[in-house]
Each structure stands twice: as structure tokens, then as C-alpha cells.
Design brief:
- This protein has about 90 residues and is α+β, with helices and mostly antiparallel strands.
- It has 2 helices and 4 strands, in the order βααβββ.
């Protein structure tokens, strides 16, 4: 069981059928780290990045990469809330 988490970062919509899916997701991680966004996210809880797949619709979904924050103070970035609950967790 995890508590609610607030994630701030960058996002894109893609699908497993999209031949550019890998590049789309890779581009998000590049923007987060090489684009300097990671350092600009305020109120980060820790240095661990989160890759969040959400908002599934038909075969499309939203991918958000960012950091967990203690409060939202980042209007220029996407904000996603992970509700408290039980989830599968994959650490790499």
C-alpha cells in the first residue's frame, strides 16, 4: 500500500502501436535530465524519478516522467496525482 503521491514533470501521449513510441518516451527522459527540468522542479521529496503511465483510452496512454513533490509549486509542468492504494512497483 502506498500513500498518495504528487508527481510533477513532463508528459506525452503515445501507444504501443505507435512506431515512434520508444522515441517519445526516450525524449521525455532526455527533457527531464538533459533539458534541466529535473533541477527546476520545486519541493522534490527525493532524487528518484518516476515514470508514470496513466489515462488509458482505447490503445493510447499518457506517459509522465518527473519527481514526487511535497506540494505543487510548478505551474509550468504537468501535475499528476497517484491515489493511495496498492500498485505493482518496478524498480530499475
Amino acid at each position: 500500500m502506498i500513500e498518495e503521491k504528487i508527481v510533477v514533470g513532463v508528459n506525452a501521449i503515445t501507444s504501443n502501436d505507435d512506431p515512434e513510441m520508444g522515441r517519445v518516451i526516450e525524449g521525455l527522459w532526455e527533457r527531464l535530465y538533459q533539458g534541466g527540468i529535473n533541477e527546476k522542479i520545486k519541493n522534490r521529496i527525493n532524487e528518484h524519478a518516476i515514470g508514470l503511465y496513466s489515462d488509458y483510452s482505447y490503445n493510447k496512454y499518457e506517459v509522465t516522467v518527473g519527481n514526487e513533490v511535497s506540494k505543487v509549486d510548478n505551474n509550468e509542468y504537468v501535475v499528476k496525482t497517484i491515489p493511495a492504494g496498492r500498485y505493482a512497483r518496478f524498480s530499475i
